[in-house]
Amino acid sequence: MGDSPVRAVAFDLDGTLFDDRQYARAGLVSAGAELQRRTGVDLTAELLAAYFRDGHREATFDVVLSTAGLADDHVPALVSAYHDSEGTLVPYPDTERTLETLADDYRLGVITGGTNGREKLSRLGLDGPVEEVIVTAERADSKRSPEPFVEMAERLGVPERSMAFVGDRPGLDFPQPNRLGMSTIRVMRGQYADALARDGAVPDAAVDSLAAVPEVLARFEGPSDRL
After folding, report:
1. Contact 156, 8 (CB under 8 A)
2. E strands along the chain, which residues?
3. Closest Cα partner for 113 from 133, 82, 136?
4. Over its length of 227 residues, how does the chain's per-residue pLDDT go in tens digits?
5. How far is the first Cα of the chain from the last one, in angstroms, to the nearest whole number?
């Protein structure tokens, strides 16, 4: 935990400010339609099952195409269709109010590794209170390196130890902020709600919803947290 008062808060996007399974579902349906257009074969149900039931989140298209005996040269088109989907995105019920509340006292940013991060934030209607956005998919680094977190603190005009980071995926969201001395808060919901946090990935605090974040930040300011 940082040893300076928190003056800025950065958030992960996917899974933290909204349930990103809705983005995945819309994208897979779009990819299924594209595959059917290209091959005449409808594998939408198989794509959804591979991702949501079987846990193939990194190579969904490769797995389904291979099982169906289709060439993997369709993958680039399916990836494009996935990210070009314009399905409705809805934030968690407490997201907008939490950001508006925090914006009164903190500078706010978003660090996301997801493709189309800025577009997602806009579609969610959350770009108003957020001052700075870093999308690592557009860069040469990722949240597995310190650079995005260091840069976000610089953009928000605070020392690294005066920034808190809020995320949902412990192995990706917290090791670097912890090393930098930032305060870290985990939101325990979404597809990583049951993921174990080990060693350097253990956050300073864990909450069930974003609505609890302001109270946790206030606790970080208390003298008992600075001993």
Report:
1. yes
2. 8-11, 107-112, 132-135, 163-167, 183-187, 205-207
3. 136
4. 666 788 999 999 999 999 999 999 999 999 999 999 999 999 999 999 999 999 998 899 999 999 999 999 999 999 999 999 987 899 999 999 999 999 999 999 999 998 889 999 999 999 899 999 999 999 989 999 999 999 999 999 999 999 999 999 999 999 999 999 999 999 999 989 999 999 999 999 999 999 999 999 999 875 444 32
5. 11
pTM: 0.88
